[in-house]
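Propose amino acids for all 352 sites.
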C-alpha cells in the first residue's frame, strides 16, 4: 500500500526526533512492502519566522489531504513574546480543529527495562504499567462560554449527547482491542454533564458485553492512579479531566521522552506526536530521546492504517533496543550504553 504523510517537525528537538522516526518508518516500509511518501511542512515558531503565522492555510490543506500527520513539537523562548493571536500553540489547536480530531489517546506504558525511573514503589508497579487514557479533545469547559463579571469570572462545561457518544464509543472500541476493561471517569455526583456522560456509558455498555465497565469520580481516579495503577486498562474521560489524568498517568512511568500520543477523528486520519515539548535546551545537540516519536509512528500504523503487525514490529524493536542496554541521556542509568538521538534511531531501525 501507498500512504501519504504530512510531516510537521516544528521547532526545537521536533526535527531531530521526527527525522529518526522516518528512518524507522522507511525500514518498516521496506520490510513489509509499503510506501510511505512524506512531505515536510513548517508549523509553529518556524512558520511564524517565515510567514508571520504559526500555520498557513496551505499547510492545513496539505494536512487535510494527507492520510495522516506526524508532528514533532512547537514553540520555544524565541516566540514566547509574540502576539497571543499568533502563538505557536495556536497551530496545534488549528490543526486539531481543521482535522476534526476529537479523541486524544495517551498511552502510559512503562517498560520494565526503565522501572528505575518510575517514582512509585516496586510493589505498586509490579512488572509494568500499560494504561490508555482516551480524552475528549474538542468540547467541555475549555471550549464553553467564559467571561468576567464585575466581581468574578466564569467558565462553562457543556457537552452535547453526540460529543459524548462519539468519544465513549472510541473508548469501547479501544478497550475491545486491548484488555477489555473500560473505566469511565466523571464527577457525576455534582456535574450535570457528567450525569449525562455516565448514562451514555451505561447504555452503550450493552453493545459491548465483553467489556467490563467501571465508573470513578475524578478525585478518586487521580488517587487510584498512584495507589493502584495496575487496575486500569482504558480510561475514558472528558477534556479537562483527561488533560490532568493523562499527565499524571504519564509521570508515573517516569520518562517523558518515551511517551507517544495520537489524536483521532471520525475517519482513519490522525495526528501523531510525542507528548513532550520542543525542549529548546537540548535542540540540535544529538541528545533528545527519539523513542516517543518513533512510538507515535507505531500508533499511526495501528490506529490510522490498521497495520498491527508493522506497529508491533516497531514496538518490539524499541523493547529490544532497551533490552540491549542502549539509553539516551534522559533514561540513562549506570552500566547502560549511552547513545545520542541519531544512534538510537539507527539502533531501532536495525532491529526492525
Ligand atoms: P518540554 O517537554 O519541551 O521539556 C521539559 C524537559 O524535558 C526539558 O528538560 C527537556 O530537555 C526534557 N525533554 C523533553 N523531551 C525530551 C526528549 N525527547 N528527550 C530528552 N529530554 C526531553 O517542556 P517545556 O520545557 O515546558 O516546553 C518547551 C517548549 O515546548 C515551550 O515553548 C512549550 O510551549 C512547548 N511545548 C510544546 C508542546 C507541543 O508541541 N505539543 C507540548 C509541550 C510544550
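Proposal:
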Amino acid at each position: 500500500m501507498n500512504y501519504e504523510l504530512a510531516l510537521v517537525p516544528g521547532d526545537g528537538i521536533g526535527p531531530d526526533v521526527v527525522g529518526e522516526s522516518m528512518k524507522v518508518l522507511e525500514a518498516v516500509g521496506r520490510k513489509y512492502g509499503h510506501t510511505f511518501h512524506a512531505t515536510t511542512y513548517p508549523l509553529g515558531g518556524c512558520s511564524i519566522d517565515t510567514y508571520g503565522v504559526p500555520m498557513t492555510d496551505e499547510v492545513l490543506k496539505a494536512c487535510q489531504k494527507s492520510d495522516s500527520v506526524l508532528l514533532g513539537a512547537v514553540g520555544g523562548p524565541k516566540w514566547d513574546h509574540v502576539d497571543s493571536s499568533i502563538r505557536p500553540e495556536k497551530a496545534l489547536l488549528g490543526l486539531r480543529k481543521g482535522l476534526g480530531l476529537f479523541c486524544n489517546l495517551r498511552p502510559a506504558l512503562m517498560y520494565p527495562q526503565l522501572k528505575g525511573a518510575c517514582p512509585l514503589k516496586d510493589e505498586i508497579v509490579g512488572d509494568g504499567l500499560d494504561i490508555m487514557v482516551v480524552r475528549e479533545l474538542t468540547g467541555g469547559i475549555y471550549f464553553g462560554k467564559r467571561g468576567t463579571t464585575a466581581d468574578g469570572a466564569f467558565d462553562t462545561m457543556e457537552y452535547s449527547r453526540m460529543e459524548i457518544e462519539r468519544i465513549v464509543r472510541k473508548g469501547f472500541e479501544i478497550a475491545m482491542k486491548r484488555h477489555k476493561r473500560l473505566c469511565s471517569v466523571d464527577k457525576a455526583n455534582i456535574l450535570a454533564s457528567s450525569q449525562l456522560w455516565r448514562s451514555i456509558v451505561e447504555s452503550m455498555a450493552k453493545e459491548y458485553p465483553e467489556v467490563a465497565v467501571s465508573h470513578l469520580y475524578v478525585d478518586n481516579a487521580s488517587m487510584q492512579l498512584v495507589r493502584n495503577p495496575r487496575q486500569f486498562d482504558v480510561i475514558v474521560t472528558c477534556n479537562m479531566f483527561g488533560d490532568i489524568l493523562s499527565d499524571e498517568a504519564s509521570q508515573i512511568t517516569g520518562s517523558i521522552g518515551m511517551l507517544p500520543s495520537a489524536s483521532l477523528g471520525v475517519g482513519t486520519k490522525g495526528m501523531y506526536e510525542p507528548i513532550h515539548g520542543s525542549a529548546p535546551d537540548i535542540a540540535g545537540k544529538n541528545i533528545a530521546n527519539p523513542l516517543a516519536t518513533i512510538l507515535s509512528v507505531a500508533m499511526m500504523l495501528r490506529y490510522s492504517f490498521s497495520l498491527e503487525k508493522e506497529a508491533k514490529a516497531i514496538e518490539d524493536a524499541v523493547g529490544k533496543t532497551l533490552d540491549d542496554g542502549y539509553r539516551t541521556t534522559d533514561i540513562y542509568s549506570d552500566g547502560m550504553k549511552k547513545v545520542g538521538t541519531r544512534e538510537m534511531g539507527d539502533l531501532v531501525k536495525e532491529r526492525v
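The pocket of nicotinamide-adenine-dinucleotide is lined by residues 13, 17, 73-76, 92, 256-257, 273, 276-282, 288-289, 292, 330 (CB under 6 Å). The longest strand covers residues 2-10.
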